[in-house]
Amino acid sequence: MKKLKTVNVVIVGGGWTGLSMAKEITTRTALxxxxxxxxxxxxxxxxxxxxxxxxxxxxxxxMQNIAEETITHRHSARDAAVPxxxxxxxxxxxxxxxxxEHWQGMAFRFMESEFILASHLREKFGARLPEGLxxxxxxxxxxxxxxxxxxxxxxxxxxGKAGNLKGQKIAGGNIFxxxxxxxxxxPPLKRSFTAMRFQQAAEELGYHxxxxxxxxxxxAYKNPDGVSRAGCTYCxxxxxxxxxxxxxxxxTNTLLPVxxxxxxxxxxxxxxxxxxVHKDGRATGVEYVDAAGEExxxxxxxxxxxxxxxxxxxxxxxxxxxxxYDPESGNGTLGRxxxxxxxxxxxxxxxxxxxxxxxxxxxLGTMLADFDGDHGFTGEEGIxxxxxxxxxxxxGRPIAGFGAMPAGAAKSNWGSEWKAAALAxxxxxxxxxxxxxxxxxxxxxxxxxxxxRDKMGDPLIRFTLDWTDHEHxxxxxxxxVQTRLARAxxxxxxxxxxAGGKYNVVGYQSTHIQGGAVMGTSPExxxxxxxxxxxxxxxxxxxxASAYPQNASGNPTLTALALTYRAAYDLIAAQKRGANS
Length: 581
Hints:
By secondary structure, the chain is of the alpha/beta class. It has 2 domains: 1-122 and 134-157 and 249-330 and 513-581, FAD/NAD(P)-binding domain (3-Layer(bba) Sandwich); 159-231 and 342-437 and 467-501, 2-Layer Sandwich (Cholesterol Oxidase, domain 2), CATH 3.30.410. Helices cover 22% and strands 18% of the residues. It has helices at 16-28, 53-58, 99-102, 117-125, 142-156, 193-204, 251-254, 256-259, 309-318, 415-425, 469-489, 557-577; strands at 2-3, 7-12, 33-37, 71-74, 82-83, 164-165, 168-169, 209-211, 221-222, 228-229, 265-269, 272-279, 282-289, 295-305, 342-343, 347-350, 365-368, 387-392, 429-436, 445-453, 459-464, 492-493, 540-542. The strands form 5 sheets. Strands 1, 2, 3, 11, 12, 13, 14 and 23 form an 8-stranded mixed beta sheet that branches. Strands 8, 15, 16, 17, 18, 19 and 22 form a 7-stranded antiparallel beta sheet that branches. Helix 1 (16-28) runs parallel beside helix 12 (557-577) and helix 6 (193-204) packs across helix 11 (469-489). The longest helix is centred in the last third of the chain and has 21 residues, at 469-489. It is globular. The two termini are 30 Å apart. The model has no long low-confidence stretch (mean pLDDT 94).
């Protein structure tokens, strides 16, 4: 095995959190930093010719190679796990920037109650809480993160409208959000016809709609790091694509331009990290296989894991760092509190006029948070956390969007009559979506699969995960609200599907996988401390959504960045004092 020269910090993963760590460290100190990314480099220029729906959106060009790395899944510890052999419920990104290159750009702050969820739920609901719940307080509060949320929003150039500015509720924004000290860096994106219709319908029902907070620029913007980007052109190619003009905030167009000028930073691609090497409570570096297939040891004074949630947990388990979680006894912490996201069945709605749906942006639309968190719930409904309702205009592309029509519009699902109906309804379809909070349960966790292995011969990560009655009740409740909204819109709509069923790895739900290396105030209940520093190996930081004790309804990216800033400041301070202090 080839041994390289020691660096101050080695970072595993080149997405939002990894490159943010690198940027904070290299611009604030003279510490040498190497980032190791398993995938290939991405350049903004490649996205100019990348608007190919079949290649990118259907065949998943920007996603992880599932023949090389996947997960196994089972519904309970009594079941046998099997590998996931085709893309389904979530889509890990591949290459520099990770999922931050192909995301839609929804940039939410989590609610205040999310960070003290265990305490909050016990106080409000007591004995009405679901069985087997394992939610935890995070050890940090919304107020701790508020200035760091603002830093991330400025770096990205988030477009939106405040609804709670320094405690003052403001109509037109999200009045249920935590208090913000600043208005959004940019005004909201332009409103589409469907977004305005949804807003009117929601207001008629007494709800409080607001525009999506979007990391797609509503106008040209220069961030505090001096990076300039153009405004959105509403081309409709955001989700599963990189932005051809740079309007969608991505690691390659916000962080790499800064890192490119740092002599104390190096990015290596094609590097498959297999182990964190450690001795006597101290990490000494990482072992990886490089793009040429050579085994390499990179010594380092400090190690940062910033890969996708599943890979952070897998690396800790393969490296035998921490005690694996045992759901029977409740002992151990590594792998516990696996959560996904509760996505309701989107209700398709059909308008009587064209919508120009080919235009749009990944995070363009209207949403309402009147049922987010536990607003409006007493516990008697069997629901203790809800979610948000949305109608977006992300761009109706020709392949995936073709064939949506009201029930009875054609007698068959093929043939000339079906084609004619599909063309007639092609530009008259939208949907009302629901995204709910996924609580953590004792029985949902990650560990190493004893049978199946990856490209390198290492065990795959295994999901033990299923929905509970709480998630089914969330979806059933969501269907009643969706129906109410559709009727207020005055349009034809699909009847909501019945709630129920097992967790399914086939249908896409979201790429928001959380937990496994959760944060907290005690090594008895968490893997990392409130600075995302490992309790047992004190010069190891594990950043990203793997630290979340449970998932809120909103997308996790902005919170991951806010926590990354905390971790970076802690690492810098630790290196100044001595890495093990």
